Amino acid sequence: MLSMLIFGTISIFVKNIDLASNQVAFFRGALGSLFLWGTLLVRKERIPLELIRKNAKFLLLSGFAVGMNWILLFEAFRYTTVSNATLSYYFQPIFMTLLALFVFKESLTAKKIACVLLAMLGMFLIIGVSPNAGNYNHPVGIGFGLAAAFFYAVAIMSNKKIAGLGGIPLTALTLVIATGILTPYVALTSGFGLGQLTGGSITSLLVLGIIHTGIAYVLMFAGAQAVESQTFAVLSYVDPVTAIMVSAVFLKEDLSPMQLAGGVLILAAAFLNEFLGNREKQIALSKE
Question: pTM for this structure?
């Protein structure tokens, strides 16, 4: 729960960093990598080189997807409200269901189709009542949020194809690869922006990299090992609820009743999709 509370407050710090989204993503990956590799050293955990070679293809895909996920999510925060960005980002389970059709050849049941349609209805409500105002361009921001959700789903699917690595070692490798991929891209486009960093931006970057990446991931994996999968799935919804509260209380962003209704539909669809998926797996196992 603590890791989800931390993830839910990420927007406060991202909005206080005077850098482009790709630069923020690079520094998050670099600082998070250093923290997680330090954690592995303290725990005296080693990652066999053979496992890295064996999983190289999917590790690279996961790292690329994570880097794109961060850039797109941070862009979403710049173009729309945190509530809209977070709710569109929670299309992740829906994208995972659709990708599973092609990656794992899973069937699309009537219940899953209903969840997809429910989530699409929720997104329609959010976009339909989000007129552009001030510096916001809500359709563009929501589009970035959906794209971030897609790449998150790609990262999860890639990780499911990785064998022999789990928890902190897998995350540490993914962050290093993501940072490595982002390095030439940032260098050739915007540059790293070190000269434009202020004291506030540096502090927010440190919090983002160490607390919202390193510590939060360590807590999340520790918690995932200690509770059942369905309990973990339920607790994961602390993240979007916290983000919406942060949006309203700290960032003073408005959330209309219609947008709230759309958000409830998206979160309900995501929860039901996950719950029904776990239930179908349990039924299949019991028949075996």
Answer: 0.82
